[in-house]
Design brief:
Helix content: 40-55%
Structural class: alpha/beta
Strand content: 5-15%
Mean pLDDT: 89
Largest sheet: 10 strands, mixed
Number of strands: 13
Order of helices and strands: HEEEHHHEHEHEHEHHEHHEHEHEEEHHHH
Low-confidence stretches: 1-13, 103-111
Length: about 500
């Protein structure tokens, strides 16, 4: 909207909605630190403000969210309408200067599909029986099995055609079940990629439970620089409760041993994923404690996620979880500095990267657009979490029309998953939308609707973003030495082998 005509519009229509005068914004504060800030999601920028400005903008933010008109909010603020309109114009001018150059979306085939990662399920079985497992102990409510050579070759042909059509390079993530139960097919997969010179596959990753290991597996990971993510949930007490084998034996000692072995002469990035349950909170285990264990084990980066269904979170426990997560986020700044950028918490790196480079995430979720999954029997799904759910089966890798089918589904998904265009999501009027890392599977599990947001997840995103905003502004303006050290570590991480790529 042009700025100059704004006052004329106001004079003609005193009941003009606040949304017509200014962008979506969010104000936040930390009462202990007496810190006040403003976040503009469109430009992904933070601003420091004073108490009086915060007080006024808080009221305007409420009016924006309620879609109220200027007259009403001016009355509550006991301000002259013209003066308020003038101040909003100044605010909008600030936002206009902060906005990055507008880039028109490209509407031709390959530009819409970025194809960043494809999970290949080489195993549909697992040697563990974790009680919170969403995948029915690895078989996704289907038959246990391993991907055979014939299917693997069909998958490679499909991926080669896909890469050629869209001229994209993507990561292959070996998945399960426990993928290393079928490590020989992984080895053959990587050998065929080299032999066939499939250029679209430029990197590998794997998610493993950290119990299957031998020297040949280590060589496989090293030779192919396979980014390796090991799952563990914290200390001995909790991991032996949540990560057990079929006989009920806790796996902490074995996972610890395997991580130690993986760290010996490794040439690949080593990450970890921890699943947090209400039992962590019952035992007084902080997420910060889990990060410390990962740091001490020599892990490069950690991702933490709450256990989903079948695990039940009461509102009280969910609040405790979020607060523990926020404390871990603050703690992770110190770990990042201490390691000079070697060890990072995924939410920290993603959030700070977004703020520093003004990276905006428009899609509600990358499933079905940037991310796909292929099952052990060759069916394509929008995400590994939907494996064996016929409602979300897209195509099969042997289908002659596989690529066009995927293209049509993905184009449809892009329209559905654009958080700012699809009003059903409710995301367009949420300040957290530009950095939010939502999950349509979580939406589906909790609401039986892909697009209706998981409110527990929304609460977590907003709370954690506010904590991140406070931490960044506080260090930048009140602890400049610490912020300088953080930025030095950030630069070192950016210039490392995998840059700011997040292992998860």
């Amino acid at each position: 909207m042009a700025l100059n005509p704004m006052k004329n519009v106001f004079h003609e229509h005193e009941s003009i909605p606040v949304r017509k005068l200014v962008d979506l914004f969010h104000v936040f504060h930390d009462p202990k630190k007496q810190l006040y800030g403003l976040y503009h999601p469109t430009s992904v920028r933070l601003f420091r403000i004073d108490f009086e400005t915060h007080k006024k903008l808080k009221e305007i933010e409420r009016a924006y969210l309620r879609n109220e008109n200027l007259t009403r909010v001016a009355s509550r603020l006991e301000m002259d309408k013209k003066n308020l309109a003038s101040e909003l114009e100044e605010l909008m001018q600030l936002f206009q200067k902060a906005k990055p150059e507008k880039k028109e979306p490209m509407m031709g085939g390959e530009s819409l599909l970025t194809l960043k990662k494809i999970a290949v399920h080489v195993s549909n079985k697992c040697n563990l029986a974790c009680p919170y497992c969403y995948a029915a102990f690895g078989n996704y409510q289907g038959k246990e099995g391993l991907m055979n050579t014939e299917t693997m070759e069909s998958v490679l042909h499909f991926l080669d055609e896909w890469g050629r059509k869209y001229n994209r390079k993507f990561v292959i993530q070996f998945f399960g079940g426990e993928p290393l139960l079928n490590w020989k097919i992984i080895k053959k997969f990587t050998e065929m990629v080299r032999d066939l010179n499939i250029k679209s596959i430029h990197r590998y990753s794997i998610v493993t439970n950290g119990t299957v290991y031998n020297s040949e597996i280590h060589d496989l990971l090293n030779e192919n620089r396979i980014i390796t993510v090991v799952s563990f949930d914290g200390d001995k007490t909790i991991t032996n409760f949540t990560r057990i084998n079929k006989q009920g034996k806790g796996m902490f000692k074995r996972i610890q041993e395997v991580i130690s072995l993986l760290n010996q002469d490794r040439k690949f990035s080593l990450g970890s994923q921890a699943t947090i349950t209400p039992f962590h909170l019952d035992l007084g285990i902080e997420i910060s404690n889990v990060l410390d264990i990962g740091y001490d084990l020599g892990i490069d980066g950690m991702h933490v996620a709450p256990a989903g269904p079948p695990v039940y979170w009461s509102p009280e426990k969910w609040t405790q979880f979020i607060e523990s997560y926020a404390r871990a986020l603050e703690h992770s700044f110190d770990l990042f500095r201490k390691s000079n950028g070697r060890f990072y918490f995924s939410i920290l790196l993603r959030g700070v990267r977004g703020l520093l480079f003004h990276e905006k995430k428009n899609l509600l979720c990358s499933a079905g657009t940037q991310y796909f999954s292929i099952s052990t029997d060759g069916f394509v799904y929008p995400c590994f979490a939907f494996t064996n759910n016929d409602l979300f089966k897209i195509t099969h890798v042997t289908d002659e029309n596989a690529v066009p089918v995927v293209e049509s589904e993905s184009l449809k998904n892009l329209e559905l998953l654009d958080r700012l265009k699809n009003e059903k999501t409710g995301c367009a009027q949420c300040y957290a939308n530009s950095l939010c890392d939502a999950c349509i599977y979580s939406n589906y599990e909790r609401n039986d609707d892909l697009l209706r947001p998981d409110r527990l997840g929304c609460k977590m995103e907003r709370y954690l973003q506010d904590q991140l905003f406070v931490k960044v502004l506080w260090e930048k303006y009140h602890e400049p030495t610490k912020w300088k050290e953080f930025m030095q570590a950030f630069t070192r991480k950016k210039d490392s082998q995998h840059g700011l790529e997040i292992i998860e």
